[in-house]
Amino acid sequence: MKTNGSKPVSPATQLPKCLTGIQGLDEITGGGLPRGRPTLVCGGAGCGKTLLATEFLVRGAAQFNEPGVLMAFEETEAELKANVASLGFDLVGLVRRKKIAIDFVHIERSEVQESGEYDLEGLFVRLGHAIDSIGAKRVVLDTLEALFASLPNEAILRAELRRLFRWLKDKGVTAVITAERGREQLTRHGLEEYVSDCVILLDHRVYDQIATRHLRVVKYRGALHGTNEFPFLIGDTGISVLPITSLALNHKVSTERIATGIPRLDAMLGGRGFFRGSSILLTGTSGTCKTIIAANFAQAAARRGERVLFFSFEESPNQIIRNMHSIGLRLEPLVKRGLLRFQSARPSLYGLEMHLATMFKEIATFQPHVVIIDPITSLMDSGTASECKGMVTRLIDYLKAGQVTSLFTSLTQGGHALQQSESAMSSLMDSWILLQNFEGNGERNRVLYVLKARGMKHSNQIREFLISDRGIDVVDAYIGPSGVLTGSARAAQNSLEKAAVLASQQEAAQLKREVERKRTALERKISGLRSDYETEAEELRRIAEQVGTSTLMLTTERAASGLLRQADIKVVAHVRNNSRNGKVS
Amino acid sequence: MKTKTAKRRIAKSQAVKLWQLRLYVMDQTPKSVTAFANLKRFCESHLKGCYRITVIDLVKQPQLAKGDQILATPTVVRMLPKPVRTIIGNLSDIERVLVGLDLRSAD
To answer: A118, A145, A158: best mutation site toward chain B, by most B Cβ within 10 Å?
Structure first.
């Protein structure tokens, strides 16, 4: 049943494996330790040998229903229980439920006298009894080498150990044997000679004042395994090995887009914001509002009802909430509603691996839709360059696998090229927004532009953005002959344009008035002319009347005088008189 | 539990303290048999009359191995007088048994 679990990882021809349940170790070993065979775990003091062995046992009993026997040579049962209780292992409960049997083997050399031949059947009997009493499938011997200190006769001991490992194999139990690291050998007493199936080496190194534990599978007979040194951590849920190579590039991708919380920025990103599950980098020198943009993004996501996890390595949660309040971002209600969670820690608090493990744990428990890391560069200080890159890769891989959108802010140090990101991080990112301060005219103005946005149409413009009581506002950039104008220069340019418009408006109005005036003048002229004409016409009529009257009078007078003269024009006058009669008289 | 008890007392005044010895063995192997014979002989010559040997066969009672921290067989544990002393092996080296049982000075 258990072997089925390892089948997808290892072909059927390979030996069956036994899942350890330890985070990461099963991935490195391709399905766990060799089933039914002993595995040697060696390392120096404080490497976590006992813990690894105990976790193997506890997880076996709790998760895989494989009871186990812990034979301790160095720590008493009470000590062991207390030690692992702090890691959340319920050893006491498992012992009570007969899932785990603990046998503390102790020999004080000063109290023991050797006389003649002997063998270690007593040990076999105890182990056998413990295995049979709970039906154990797993056995841990921690640390068998203590026997070398207790029993003076090494020849007998070695012979008996060889027999013990043979016996364990015959019993079919999966055993983990811990041993102290030797000077030139893997183990101090050459135990690797007897345990030849699987050897795991643990190591605890200090580099640049930061201690990191490493795990390496030195040997795994009959199985493929990761051969690298993998950093591992002892957190409060036990060991977690962090294999860099555990994830291939085969994440699911989403076509869903999510808004940034700044409408104009969305517009710059093809109108719809970032892709869900993508990684976003926000770089800039100090004071370019990286945190504000990140907080905007967080608020927008939380308002959509998504869970947001905000890792802050520079400011405390309360400080961020207070500062963001000053620009109109109200984060506190979102925190209270459980949509936004802050995690603040000093970068120097612990090593990179520990940070990473803490973040993994937080992410695993909170299940956020959006993760913000502000700033990732602070973390970079606590490790070497290669470690950092590895860490960011793992983090991004982890987040992408879970379709979590991640936003990293990165502080560009003064003097560096703006487009140079720490540890070549940018190649890992899907989108990159660069924030910059423009200096000039005795002021500094903030601009942003989209340097890269994989898979979407995006604006190539440099935009200025303003921070006010109401938050961020991205304004149109004014691009003049001397480049981008920002701040008061942009304002000056704006007013210049306004003045020009005003001037032309005024000109038009004046022209209109002129025309109007001309029209009125013309009309006045026309009416003058008309009245002249009318006067003249009147005159004319009057004259015509006068003429008519005088003609009549003349005719009448002439007729009268003709009459007086008795001229022969009587007929004529009579005719004329008749034709005019109707009109004149 | 007590498969075989050898118990003798002597009338001497100094024999007030009783020696309680446990012998852990695996089955009736030659090693076990030798160990028992050696222990018996030793006790007869040094502790005549004031000792008691309990032989525990771990094949039959494996659960008893844990209590006395038995790893090797054969093992002799001196339960009384205190403090507890342990000797491992088939007891063929008498000198070491004497040291182990803290009897050197008594002689």
So the answer is: A118
